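Glycosyl transferases group 1
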Amino acid sequence: MKFCLVSLMPMSDSDGKVFTDEVNRITQWATVMKGTHYNGVYFDQGHYGLPYEFFNEFDLVMVAVRHESIEVGLKIKRQSTARVIVFLDGEMEYFTSYIWGDLQVKLIELLNIADAVGVTHEFDIPIIKALTNKPVGLVGVPFPLKKVREELCPKVEKKQIISLGSMFRNGFVNLAALSEIGLPGAVDIYNLKEIEYIRLMKKYMPIPPITFRYTPRWEDFMFHLNQSIMGLHLDFRQIWGRFALDCAAVRMPCIAPENFYTQKKLFPRLCVSYQDIDGAVKLAKELLKNNSFYEEVMAYAESQLAFFDNESAKKRLLDLYNQI
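Predicted structure tokens:
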């Protein structure tokens, strides 16, 4: 099968070539399917110098949809002969609440003229099935588990540090929970101003020491994540949830809500509401004091990890494709 991914990932020299880079992001679909990738917005603006009929040469085009790429998906389906699977690339709330007006109409049109729709959470399926009569299935994002285990992250002695999934999404709640737990934290940042914000908040909150990292390369992020004893991410979005999967891959538990599909699947005993600070603190302290509990939740996560690897994800996509 000749495969092409169209997404909003930055334009690069790899576009138009067979993808081989293995990372935990949307482009992993191009790698797993031995296909290629194009940035949808730049394609539409003519930066690749190709017409939409170019997609005729592909058996399957996956369009990772955000508001910027809805029109791109429509043009690919209308102007080429390729089978098109729409992949909802974001939290469900983004599509149901933050896209409106003309774009909302176009999104519904795209869902109905595409050949199938892929989602990232089983909770999304009944919502999307109510909007289209095309096949809808959970596909998620392939995870390069073999690379993590064999190349990036060997077993190490974990440090008494809690990795936070974000300072941006529900960041205050993550900080509040970390403060109650009392262990040092670590977090990736996108702006140096975040460090100053935390310094100022320490006047009012008992925030423990936090190590700030800037790791644009996923491989570097995973190296640092591997040092921590657990992850914490009280995010409100209904989404795939890369962070919980990253944590399981480096053999550490994650406390997060079940609106992360990965969390629900890997760590059902560590699911809390995204505002349940007391529940998150209680679970973290239990993990720290009860080694049997820690080992049990990790053994279960280990038993579920194969669901997320490259081959399992590929099978889910092909199963959806075969329903067309």
